[in-house]
Request: fold
Amino acid sequence: MFDMLLPVSIYLVDSIVSGIYSQGFLKERYGKKAVLAVWGAAFFLIQIAVYEILDNRFPISEVVGIIVNVCVLLFMQFFLFEKDMQKQVFVAFSFVAGKEIVKYVVSVFSIVCNGFGNGILSYFIKKEIINTLEKTHIWIGIVTFVVVILCMLLYTLLLSVYLRLISKKFVKKDYLLQTHENIFLVLPCIAALCISVTIKMMIISVENGMTVIIYDTVPSTKFWIPVICILLLSSIVASVILFQKLVQYNEETGKRAILENQVRQMQKEIVEIQDIYTDMRGLRHDMRSHIANISLLVKNVAGSVNEELESYIGKMEETVSKLDFTYQTGNPITDIIIHQKGQEAEKKQIQFKVDFAYPPNLLIDIYDIAVILNNALENAIEACHKTAGNKLIKLHSYVKGSLFFIEVENDFTENIVIEKESGLPVSSKESGKLHGIGISNIQRCAKKYKGDIDIEISDTDGRKKFSLTVMMNGKPAAAI
Reply:
């Protein structure tokens, strides 16, 4: 009875833990609870059928057992989860490698516990606390049961910690693995499985027709085998951490390059914009003077007011007024950006309220403010455009000491998913990763000035509001 208790307990733990682990990486075809229930029941029954019933008639080698385990996991993932072959292969191999390696740690623990239990029984027998065969059987059963429970708890703990570490460190779960990247992740798992097979062959051997256990002949292996197993598990976790760091580094490099290109482009256009701004101011001034002179001349010559002529001159003045920027922020660059975004919002029937002023007394590069305004208003207009009914975007800025704040608030309708790692919203667009660079670049500009961004999402009377606040200190922390 007790001989079956430990393996059945391990099968049960494997069934539950493997389902939860797979759910952390893969998207279910059906409801989460339904998938977990079906997975647990099916995986448990398959293990009983293969390793307890089939193995008794046709003994399965260690290598074949591992292959069967991987195939069963892939087979169940195929039916219960959406297709993501690269990630499915990694999930299957990392789980099987973990459970096979953990077994050897538990086996050493079991031997140590049994030795300790036998010592207690010997002491009780010596002191005649146990003085009958019946009592001996009872106490042996109790000790065996306690050892089985302790082994099962240790197995569950070690396997859960190992899988939890992988799941936690594999933060970019939406990242589409390439074949070479998957090989990089799976190879440490395969290496661990090969070593587990080697350990199994080393532990049990036959000499002169007798079974010899290495723990009895070389006691130091009781220490070294668990150490080797922990190192193997650590190497798998370390490969996941390294891979994630590389992915994050590549993404950061791409985002940095895009931001630098934006700034360089603005730097190239800045001179032209300032010249245009200066020319337009001069043109507006000259045109108003000409219109005033023409109007005065007409009145003097005609000696009376001509309504048609007055109307014509009035329309000319309106046309000249259009050359004025609607928003006077104190800087030509921010004037033009806000003017352009205001016109774009007007075309899409979005109300655009602005209370923005450039902080001339703070040491904040205009290029960085331009990047922030351009990205923030572009995202706001895009989100607002998809909203039905009245649509509103508010742009506000203020200064507190050496701190400069920019606030952008807009209506939106779509669901916003916040990425756990960065705390930033993920776009719902197909090009979501590229689109999400906008907000990350805003954050990068803020952090350049020892600042950061804050995002608030509210829902009042069914109307959703997205508020972005950018804070920057007047002294830049470092160059981009």
Observations:
- The chain has a mean pLDDT of 82.
- The CA atoms of residues 169 and 241 lie 6 Å apart.
